[in-house]
Amino acid sequence: MNFCGPVIEELDDVEGIDKALRKNISAYYTTEKGETFSMGRLNMEPLFRGKKLVMNYTDGSLCPDLEDVDEIPKAEHRRRKIKGDDDDEDDDDDRKSKKKKSKRRKSTLLSFLCDTNPSVTSHPQISFVGTPDSCSYFFEVRSRYACGGASSTDPSSLGPGGVFGVILAIAILVYLVGGCAYQRTVMHQRGWRQCPNYGAWASICSFIGVSRIFGSRSHGEADWGLPSDRFD
Asked: 204 CB contacts (<8 Å, ≥6 apart)?
């Protein structure tokens, strides 16, 4: 079985399916006799039925007759045959005419359930629910991909840190563009003075520069002092 795509195995002989259509089979099974039956063709459009996310594969192999599926023998009520009565022959003809080959085809219904259990993060868990008539098959598929929202392992999704970074970048951009526009148009400033809060940023830069100068001078005096002490 495969989801939203055909099976990866190459199927040579499938009951009731033409050779040209075997490459579109999305689910199949093989009996003990070696017979392969298709459970439905490719479908790439899951849909919601109420709150359930489902996918349906249709147009599989021909379904067996209900009389062949039912293994419980039914009681046959026979009436006493009357000599010269033609009703028995008419009843036999009616049964033969009603017994026709089934034209129904096998189908598969997949019901997807949200499951964030770490044991099913890599591969979904498929559970066979049952088949009432060996023609329709029902499965439950548990996977994190059936959960709403973005996947936690999706590389294209943003985490809390990424969202905060985007908001911070937008705020800085608005601050710079809006402040420069205000300083240029309203305050008629030019050059670096167009920057918003130019005085505050200039004071910070001057303080950092002065601290570096005093730090380098004190470090240089200590270095020059070591040899003089040694010579003394």
From this structure: none
Q: Reduce the secondary structure of 94-108 to three states and give it as a string.
A: HHHHHCCCCCCECEE
Supply 112's token pair: 């997807």
188 burial via Cβ count (<10 Å: 0-12, 13-18, 19+):
exposed
- How many residues in the chain? 232
Reported as a single tens digit per residue, the pLDDT across 133-166 is 889 999 999 888 888 764 445 555 667 788 888 9
Q: Which amino acid, one-letter code, is at 189?
A: Q
180: pLDDT strictly greater than 80: yes
In our burial notation (b when 16+ CB lie closer than 10 A, e otherwise), range 132-155 reads eeebbbbbebbbbebeeeeeeeee
Q: In angstroms, what is the C-alpha Rg of the chain?
A: 40
pLDDT in tens, 78-95: 444 444 555 555 555 555
Task: Give the tens place of pLDDT for each residue, 117-127.
Answer: 766 666 788 89
- Only one residue has tokens 């939203």, namely 4
Mean pLDDT, all residues of the chain: 75
Q: Are 41 and 16 within 8 A, CB to CB?
A: no
Asked if 55 contacts 43 with a C-beta cutoff of 8 angstroms, the reply is yes
Phi, psi of 156 (to 5 degrees): -85, -10
**What is the model's pTM?**
0.49
Host H or E run for residue 129: strand 125-130
For strands 47-49 and 36-41, give the pairing.
unpaired
